[in-house]
Queue: 3 jobs
Job 1
Amino acid sequence: MAKDITSILQKWGDDVVVDIGAFLDTVNKTNTGNLKKSLRFEVRQDAERIVMELKGADYSEYVRLGVQGAGPGKNRAPGSPFKYGTGSGKKGGLRASINKWAIQKGLDGIRDKKGRFIKRKNLVFLISRSIYRFGITPTNFVFPFFKRLDELTALIGKETAEDIRQQLINQFANASK
């Protein structure tokens, strides 16, 4: 019985991972696709229970929960456990990451509202400052997981009921011999 449920959970989890990938595409959170590619659903059974885990890239929790800004004003992720300005991150790491992102997006330079050219270095500074001050908005990309819980309940219920039915048939068939 547990093996059947484990396989049902794994199939359901694999489908949820596909849905999460589509959700990340919808909310425009797939720059390189590494986060989407790294997501996987693992099901394992220990002595007492079945354990299910959604795993992904190291930075997946930052994308999911967002990051609080360090500056005054509107904070994009007020409830996030992560925060800029704590001094725990690598010095200059945000700006280097934004520069890499800008290169991947092909932002060699753009024009401002007055039509003046803005160098990528200046653009990276402005984006980094905004992210540092206001934070990163959470995506809550696990939404498809919760959306499909009713489906999981129905699948497990059906499988469990069939297993119990079969066990009862076997038990009574053996008792009548």
Job 2
Amino acid sequence: MVSPNQVISPITIDNYGRMAWDNVVQHYPTAKKFFEKGNINRDQHGNQLYWPIEAGRNDVYITQDYEDVTDNYTMTRPYTNATLDWAQLAVFKAISKGQLKKNNGKEALVKWSQKAIPQMYRDGLVGVSNSLFDQFFNMNIQSYTTKVAFAGLPSVFVGTTAITWSSNSKEGTINNTNYGGLTCVSGGLTNVDNAEADAWTPTAVNTTSTAWADTAVTFRANCFEILTYAISASSRFSPSDMSLNPDEVVMTRAMYNDVAYQMNQKQTFYLTKAVQKKAAFGIGQDVSEGLEHNGVPIRWDTNLAANTGYVLNYDQMWLDFLPKMEFSGDKVGELKQSGDDESIFETEVRYNDGRRALTVSATADGQFRINPRYQTMLFAGK
């Protein structure tokens, strides 16, 4: 009979980790965007995630010949650095000694390893609570103080203090004083010379403001105007550098249905000749692709909080991981770099005497890295 350790081996289980990651990348849009942009790094190092940002600009002068321009040569500091602590995410599975005895046929073990283990990895990536991409949409790292979490989008927008909303303003005021160790308040980067005011500041759009055209003061009534405003706030309109323009709008399903409703209401078709029985109608509405507005795709995601949406630029976001450490038969640790393994998980399989069970753990050490300037939140502020 095949032993449990032969069927459920570290190599086999780690293969499930790779397959789970590949499956999520192909079928979960947010993961796919990170992958397509090439912004997933698996070989970071150091006690903290540390990256430079360029926020300062040079003064430009009007000069003339024979003019002494000595005083215009000034030493400036155009750069600063953002830092974040590394986060760790882990999922665990155990099969008891009794289960191993009772389910000793090959079929039972295969079912356990091919069903429960892949589900463990999938839940770690896209599950409903504390998964990697649940944290991306919902985790404010400043409010999770007991351990270090992945710094999701709320870390950028809310941070240490809430957004100030006004019922008659289309935008909320960003008060976050600490994302990556830097203030997100407009004009707040005092450690950079000639800093651009919005160099580290995101945009927060109030979807229930009275400043929108329709007096109904709902997202449904004003969704086209709101989306146009939010997309333009996220765009830099650079034909030579598409990384400065937004990739998609992500929102709750209720908000998505509001947009679809308005699209249906606004469409009129004039038929000048007979059409085939299976003719399809509808602008920007494809079940497999989602909706679209101003050339930007729109989709919904179950991970988003109520009344919340985002206009996202994935060229300005990264998912960084520390290298994996794997142990060979002689227990010698080996760091696995990018290109060695496509799975983000470190997997350990062993028999635990204390639990009298075979235990499996999958761990990912990493952090999200986001450029706030190119991200926009949609929220029912006031």
Job 3
Amino acid sequence: MEVLQRTANRGSVSTGNFEVGNSTAFDRTRTEYYTRNVSSAGSRTTGTISMWVKRGRGDLAQYLFTFGNTDNDDGRTFARFQADDSLRIMGGNTTWRQTSRVFRDFGAWYHIVIAFDTTQSTADNRIKLYVNGEQITEFRTKNNPSQNGNLGLAFQKQVIGYNSVDNNSPYDGNMCEIVIQDGVASAPTEFGEFSDTGQWIPIDPSGVTFGTNGAYLNFADSSTMGKDVSGTTVGNFTGTNLNSTDLSEDTCTNNFATWNYATGYLEGSATAFTGGNLIRQGGSSAYNACTGTIGINPYEGTAAWYWELEISSNNSGDGIEVGVGWISETVMLVGSHRAAQEVQPAGFMQWTSTDWSPPSSGTGAAGDIFGLHLQCHPTNPTFKWYKNDTLVFTDQTGNPHDISNDFYFPYVAVYNTSMEGIANFGNPIQEFAIASGNSDPNGFGTFEFTTKSGYALCSKNVAEYGG
């Protein structure tokens, strides 16, 4: 069957009745975040935040939220991913918790719940962290606030995706179903449940107690992206550097493909990713390559699959190049799979061995969009490449190249720092400007061109048509 990475993809595909329609896609290079001021008094000792997050780039400090705006323990509370991919919960001065666990499944949705209650007599119960329904109890660093001590909860300011005190470390990736509770320390069962197959999935949180300064961001309103639908009177959140393009169908109930940050090591720099892992930058006089998070076996089933890639610069072969296509899992796991192959300008790739050159090439200009189409078939699958919706190359088994009975993943190799490969798996970002929206046959995704009966690479389609 199709693959949603080989690592455990916890919290990525919902099988329940509650469907999440949108997330916000944050791009750290644009410093995108939500914020609102809090004027009325709430609880300074007790509160909960619940959020579903899908990470973009690792290896950088990135803030999930900041509550309060005074840089001391009772005036500021925040959580962030560390550069080593652990999760840290802090006050202005003190690290309350830092996980031993690291979070490196860049194709997965994680459900994170942090419950604060300093009124608890047991010190370790004053801050509880849950991930995908399970309490985290192993920490490399653990400190506890004093009993009945104030924290930066329900105080001054609430910020999602940014360090608003020091003005740095914006988040990169997606978030959805953000719930803030004021005066309530909740268990994760207020926001999710285990399915019959043992997977942690979201439930409708609209009936929880929000308190005075609570909030519920479901990102359902493209005209007011930071709309608080909790019913409290604090007001909506204001988006900074965000627009409606940043509303994405990639959610914890329908997980879309992105570039897999964990495959950046295969060729070139492992860190040249932005846009929630939908942009791969070229290297300095070198190739940067990566694969997508969802793979397809061409010989399984009879469904067709489709995705797009836009190039950011003129692509003439004079030191600025991009190759786009598919790569088999066997070759991907070899490591430096490009080896001595020459990637021609806008080369079209579908590699099945480490010594096979790209099947064709052509020039490209900034803004050109390549469409990648795979028609699965038990004996004769077909790969097709389109350039601005014009068919430019077709590959079938033995004509001109063999196609392995293996999983194939979206692939890009980008040469030179002035070139970017901007993917659209149905979840476009600001850099991938859509002039005419087209969905797949199931109504999923937004593409520039028609999908030619191809399905978007997302978990719902994989579950239905995976063969």
